[in-house]
Write a structure and sequence with these properties.
The chain is mainly β. The protein is built from 1 helix and 8 strands. The longest helix is centred in the last third of the chain and has 13 residues.
C-alpha cells in the first residue's frame, strides 16, 4: 500500500448527521485523494471526484473546518485549527479541486 503524503490526527469529523468531536478524527492525504476517519465512520474521496473544498466556521467558533463536497454524496467535514484547514485547502487546490478560503458559517 502507498504511504500517505501526510496525516492529521486529533481533529473532529462530521459524516452527514454523525459528528465526532476533537480528538476523534483523522484526515489522510494520498496521491489519489483524501480519507477522513473517525471511530466507526470513514469517507474516501478521489481528487477527481471532489467538487469543492470550503473553509467553514462553526456557530460556536472553537475551531475551523473544511467541508469536502463530492457529487451525489453527503459532504464530509474535518475540524481542526484554522492554520491546518488552510494547509488542507492548499493541498486540495494543488490537486485541481476548487477551494473557497472565505469562511462560511456552518450551523
Amino acid at each position: 500500500q502507498e504511504a500517505p503524503w501526510w496525516a492529521l490526527d486529533g481533529g473532529g469529523a462530521r459524516f452527514g448527521l454523525m459528528n465526532y468531536t476533537m480528538p476523534m478524527g483523522t484526515l489522510t492525504a494520498w496521491s489519489e485523494g483524501i480519507e477522513v476517519d473517525a471511530p466507526g465512520s470513514r469517507a474516501s474521496m478521489k481528487w477527481q471526484e471532489m467538487r469543492r473544498a470550503t473553509l467553514i466556521q462553526p456557530l460556536i467558533p472553537v475551531s475551523s473546518g473544511v467541508r469536502f463536497e463530492v457529487e451525489g454524496r453527503a459532504s464530509v467535514i474535518y475540524w481542526t485549527s484554522k492554520a491546518k484547514c488552510l494547509e488542507i485547502l492548499d493541498v486540495c487546490e494543488r490537486q485541481g479541486t476548487e477551494v473557497q478560503r472565505q469562511a462560511r458559517l456552518n450551523i
